[in-house]
Design brief:
The chain is an alpha+beta fold and 719 residues long. The chain is 41% helix and 13% strand. It folds into 3 domains: 240 residues, Aldehyde ferredoxin oxidoreductase, N-terminal domain (Aldehyde Ferredoxin Oxidoreductase,  A, domain 1); 208 residues, Aldehyde Ferredoxin Oxidoreductase Protein, subunit A, domain 2, CATH 1.10.569.10; 174 residues, Aldehyde Ferredoxin Oxidoreductase Protein, subunit A, domain 3, CATH 1.10.599.10. α7 packs antiparallel against α23. The relative contact order is 0.11. This is Aldehyde:ferredoxin oxidoreductase.
Length: 719
């Protein structure tokens, strides 16, 4: 079937015309609301209160979601929303990493507000089309697409019965369908999900950008928390935006010279230093695969181990030499000289419905190589890329898939699962064929893939109730928290990183705090108070990127010469000042580095209170599985026996001589769990929260987040 026949089958449900408007100092001052239950399309004003307290991006998403739902709203209720917002800096082309948008919804995995950042062109094009945010509510009766023409000021909702659902095909089809010419393809951005999002809680959203060199619509993912599952539950097949005329001053900044100065400085640093530092332009985030292995931080066999003799088979140089296309710009937004969005071209698939086809695989990112690779005991780069591709096109979060598959594999090897239960899949560590089949089953909505697609938290409950598994063992090895699967770093030897995972708002994702090297390698934060300060500053600083529409990678994946001699080098102070300057340059504000943190504190505490409102967000929800802290099994302990015995002597004051491994595990566990509880106390105190994790009214007043509806949520918990 050709594109014309597909488009002719569309049925127009609603057409809405709007005045184009203009971006001023990073804001259009309005947002677009679409309700799919009644095909209502409206413009909402962005108020000064919203800009002051919520800034944009994630802040706008959380605020709209807060007002759309109540404490009883479930992820699949029509009232739940998906909000996409870019923030006031999103879309500038002078500073690297300025094309991010943030997506918020109530998560099918956690039951709480979820935010996920994503690249691609959709966020900037949405702003240039006249909207600071897109708010989607309700449910369509049949599959629909939403088309926004940002040059003509037209929005359409159309039934779309014939197009395929999987992301790589649908993005290509709709790019071709809505572009006026080959040249016009770069002006189209498409948001899709995929077939597996219809059958699991792990669905992601793919945001496209057209790569003019490769002549293909490439995909970036808003991966975490099942946002794509909500998308397909609402019967949205795709969002399409068209905007022609991108240029460097569309945000109409208050002072463009501030932005240009910061941008020129960073472009020069990247050009001069990147190849000697992290090689982001050469291999992207996959540059750290072997580094994590060297430091015993690479999750292996469901986080039991931190390294493996076969890691060299999936090291970054393997992907550089054999798979990743070189010599092409790989940024996912204009002007990003970091260019870390790598791709493997003409990759021939060996399995599944697209077997034999040659495709473009966006990756691997480090998280994909670690999660789909070492954590599952798979050290074959071709398998990692194939899993990577199918996760993307089926719309499955690669992090959740890697972590839950590793959990299943350990349960299989422990005898909790067998072939009868898994439908014939021998899910041992390293069984690539079984891992791929599990993924294909998720797409087809059949077999053990349906069970796996519920995530680790629900599998733990099922394995206890149906298969007689020991609940304590499953809670120890099931690497989820708040219902979200852990991202791919081994935090056992870094108490600060344990807090960086456990004390997050949305669950164990490293975008709030990545403190492993500061804590474990460099010993820069030795006391509880030091760790608490780091677990205050870095989550707040990283939150700020999501408010303004920025990628965090240009902040610390390139560092200025002489940064090691700077005051507080881990913060990259010269780059912090860059962000202060571009914020003031775009918005006309006069913030400093302290106010930058305060802006984030308001939104961060708001999200914590949103969690509380939804029945979560207290101390009990910040517990983490013991495997994130220390060794669960005898095999695990004995793999690092010398290290653990030394810790027992020197830190615990316990003599391991003559003790069984089980006795030593128990003694070490008691110590490490106590350390984590002390860390929680210190962090809560620094954040202005009670010992139960509730933000105090005094602190909310201090930071300016004392809205009446916010105070009403916390007041009953404060006595």
């Amino acid at each position: 079937m050709n594109f014309l026949e597909m488009k002719q089958a569309h049925k127009l449900l609603k057409e809405h015309k709007y005045a184009l408007g203009k971006v001023e100092k990073g804001y259009t001052n309005r947002s677009l609301y679409i309700n799919l239950s009644d095909n209502r399309i409206e413009s909402k004003p962005v108020t000064e209160m919203m800009k002051e307290k919520f800034i944009g991006g994630k802040g706008f998403g959380l605020w709209y979601l807060w007002n759309a739902v109540n404490e009883k709203t479930k992820w699949n209720d029509p009232e739940n929303e998906i909000i996409i917002a870019g923030g006031p800096i999103c879309g500038i082309t002078q500073y690297p990493g300025s094309g991010k948008s943030l997506v918020c919804t109530i998560s099918p995995l956690t039951g709480m507000p979820m935010d996920s950042n994503v690249g691609g062109y959709f966020g900037p094009y949405l702003k240039f089309s006249g909207w600071d945010a897109l708010e989607l509510q309700g449910k369509a009766e049949k599959d629909v697409i939403i088309f926004i023409d940002g040059n003509e000021g037209i929005i359409k909702i159309e039934e779309a019965p014939l197009e395929p659902v999987d992301g790589h095909i649908l993005s290509e089809v709709l790019t071709e369908m809505y572009a006026d010419s080959e040249e016009d393809r770069k002006n189209i951005s498409v948001v899709t999900s995929g077939t597996a999002a219809e059958h699991t809680r792990l669905g992601l959203l793919n945001f496209s950008f057209y790569d003019i060199r490769r002549q293909v619509a490439r995909l970036k993912q808003a991966g975490r928390g099942g946002i794509g599952t909500v998308f397909r539950d609402k019967k949205i097949k795709a969002l399409i935006i068209k905007y022609k005329g991108t240029k460097g001053d569309l945000n109409n900044p208050a002072n463009k010279s501030l932005i240009n100065k910061a941008g020129i400085k960073l472009h020069k640093e990247i050009c001069k230093l990147d190849n000697a530092q992290n090689r982001m332009r050469k291999i992207g985030t996959a540059n750290i695969i072997e580094v994590m292995d060297d430091y015993d931080l690479l999750p292996t066999h469901n986080y039991k181990f931190g390294s493996h003799p076969d890691t060299y088979k999936i090291a970054s140089n393997v992907f550089i030499e054999k798979y990743i296309t070189q010599g092409m710009p790989d940024g996912c937004w204009y002007g990003c000289s970091m260019s870390c969005a790598k791709a493997a071209d003409s990759f021939e698939l060996k399995t599944g419905p697209y077997k034999g086809q040659k495709v473009t695989v966006d990756g691997p990112e480090y998280e994909n190589a670690a999660g789909l690779g070492s954590n599952c005991g798979i050290f074959d780069p071709q398998v990692i890329l194939e899993l990577n591709f199918y996760c993307d096109t089926y719309a499955i979060d690669t992090i959740s898939f890697g972590t839950l598959t590793a959990f299943i594999m350990e349960c299989y090897e422990a005898g909790i699962l067998n072939k009868e239960i898994t439908g014939g899949l021998a899910l041992n560590f390293g069984n690539a064929e079984a891992a791929l089949e599990l993924l294909h089953q998720m797409s087809r909505g059949e077999g053990f893939g349906l069970i796996a697609g519920q995530g680790v938290r629900r599998m733990k409950r099922l394995f206890v109730e149906e298969y007689g598994a020991h609940p304590e063992f499953l809670n120890d090895i099931g690497m989820e928290q708040k219902g979200l699967e852990f991202s791919e770093y081994l935090p056992k030897e870094s108490l600060a990183q344990q807090g960086g995972y456990g004390l997050t708002n949305k669950g164990p994702q490293h975008d709030e705090a990545w403190l492993i090297f500061m804590d474990m390698v460099n010993n820069q934060i030795p006391t509880f108070e030091d760790k608490a300060e780091a677990l205050h500053y870095f989550p707040m600083f990283r939150t700020w990127f999501g408010l303004y529409g920025l990628c965090k990678l240009p902040w610390n994946d390139i560092t200025p010469e002489g940064n090691g001699e700077a005051n507080e080098p881990a913060k990259i102070p010269e780059h912090v000042q860059n962000y202060v300057d571009i914020c003031n340059g775009v918005t006309g504000k006069n913030i400093d580095k302290e106010e930058l943190i305060r802006e984030s504190e308001r939104v961060y505490n708001f999200q914590r209170i949103f969690n509380i409102r939804m029945g979560h967000g207290k101390r009990a929800d910040d517990a983490i599985p013991y495997r994130a802290m220390g060794p669960v099994t005898v095999e695990e302990y004995e793999s690092r026996q010398e290290r653990y015995d030394k810790q027992l002597r020197e830190s615990v004051g316990y003599d391991p001589e003559g003790k069984s491994t089980e006795e030593k595990i128990k003694a070490l566990r008691q110590y490490r769990e106590n350390q984590y509880e002390q860390l929680i106390d210190a962090v809560y105190k620094r954040r202005g929260w009670t010992l139960n994790g509730i933000p105090t009214i005094e602190y909310l007043q201090k930071i300016g987040m004392n809205l009446p509806e916010v105070i009403a949520v916390v007041k009953p918990y404060l006595g």
